[in-house]
Protein 1
Amino acid sequence: MININYVLLIFIILPFTSNTSTSHNGTIEILQEAEDYLKIKSSHSLKLLEQIKNLPQQSDKVIIRWHIIRARASVATNDLSIIEESIKRILTFQEHPYFIQRLPTILWTIGIYLRKSGYFNQADASFSCALQFTDNDRLRLFITNSQGLSARHSGQYARAKKLYMEAIQLAKKLRFERMIANIENNLGSVAVDSGQFVQAEQHYRKAYAGFQKSGRRSSHITAGINLLFVFLLQKQELNYQRLYSPIAALTETSPDKSKHAFLFWINWAFKAKMGEKIDDKTREQLQDSFIKLESRKLQYLIKKHLAQRLSISLTLAAETALKPIDLPWLPDILKCKWKPKN
């Protein structure tokens, strides 16, 4: 005879178990989709993460993964406070197997945060530590490229070039066309910083062709504007005139104010070179555009190479003092405390 109480217990438990499993599977699916969008639209990754409710009640693995995605997505939106908040939370799980599994990505993200905060030496240490924990060529490529960016921003141009050359070899090995174009653009910028405009043109041409092929519109515009800049500096009027119209048309579709400002300066410098007079209203517009440039380094390039051509006096923004950051775990990064024992 079947025990009625036992049957009732099964009917009570099964729906609960099924719903719990479905809820967990739904969370994993959201996390996977959020990771996928990191490559396409990071802001959407952040919106997807908001769909996961009661995060503190989730498993440790889900919490770690959620914060890794959140920190990486916030790199693109440049929200340093969110990155720092998630890094601190991730580092409370240092003994968890999933933390160890994702350590290279975690250290890479920490390095990007440190670089964006102006702590270039510390960022370099984090990248170097990350490289010790991965044999994955794709991840090594991203980390090495980030290390090159850090070296460039700290004025170590020879080292930046060396790191970019290492990264481009990995990108070619992987046939990763978009990253090849990205690194070529970075090499072009290092060459401009070093006053090597012929080399810069060669790199920017490759970057422009690569981004054009891959359909990355924003990067395509960036490389095109960079190429116009070196055409102007090398007095290549015909090349400039051929490229300007398509790049200007693309830039019009971009919401990036810094791109608009940079192109505005470049084109007025070209017009002045061709004999066009600049009026007071345009001077004011150029002054306003100067403030919209995305970085002090870009402002420096404008001041150094273009302002005098237009008889405009510019003042660089004061260098921002390093913001103190509350990172009690920073010494662990600097000594790479997770370093495998040989």
Protein 2
Amino acid sequence: MAADFPRDLAEKVEARTISYGAALSLRFLMEQDRRIVCAFLEELRPSSSLMKEFAELILDISKREGLAAAEIIAGLKDIMTVRQSRKIKTEKVRRALRARRFPSLTEKEKELKAASLALSLPANVSLHYPENMEGKKVSLTIRFENMAELQQSLDEIKKKTERLNEFLEIL
């Protein structure tokens, strides 16, 4: 219920400019920080779920690094000032906040992406690693129209066994 929120935040939830999920995290910020983060989110206008994710990440970073939320938002200024679509800005903000909040995870994701590209798998073969690096199981998808195409893909994968092992070792 919005009644549990500070008045300024309750008004934004009621006006639907700030999602309820985001407000659950934002209520813990000092008024000035809350105002700055709300203005940032209102300008960016992400989906409700992304708004909640951003608010949680900002709160976590603030606690972990001992910074005011306004300082975290200031670090995103470059993304916001570049003339780009809202979708691109939102994705860049998400990547920046996740990289700051989960530096080891994002580094591991970059390493896996580079290893995946180094495999040079055929266009009809895709490799998927576990989301958030939870677990060690990967999936390999092969799209084909006939048995010859499937066999060709399997032969190509077999040639890359050593590189696939290197990829799995990263996990």
Protein 3
Amino acid sequence: MQPLVIRQAQRADCAEISYLITRNAKLLLNEDFDGDGLNFFLNTVTERAIREYMDQGFNYLVAQANNEIIGVIAIKDNSHMFHLFVDKNYHKKGIAKQLWESIYTQSVESGNNGTFTLNSTSYALPVYQRWGFTCTDELQIRHGIRYTPMSLTVD
């Protein structure tokens, strides 16, 4: 693998970001969806949807290796982690953590006071807990998507 590059996502990346999220959600997150939840989720991560999130000011970073986007993270309002996906073939290499650290730094530099929130799938829950996030509520189901609200406050 060529050296990993973490960079600001561009509008030209939207199709590749959508493909990465869609492919990995189908592979890894089946137990986090009830009924039509997967289809609902997939409709929120189309190329057009990603572009609209960017237009609304969501901050997207991508991890790139071998001229391919292998990871993506998005944050809303510099405080709510919205997406974090790493291609299954690149798991357990620290890429998600590098993406998180990069967007964390950008968010703090942009005025975040040290409080971050997210809605975790069961698949990602242990990762976020290792990073210091704690559950703020019990398992929720909305639009057929199962998630656990979490937060992190850094002094």
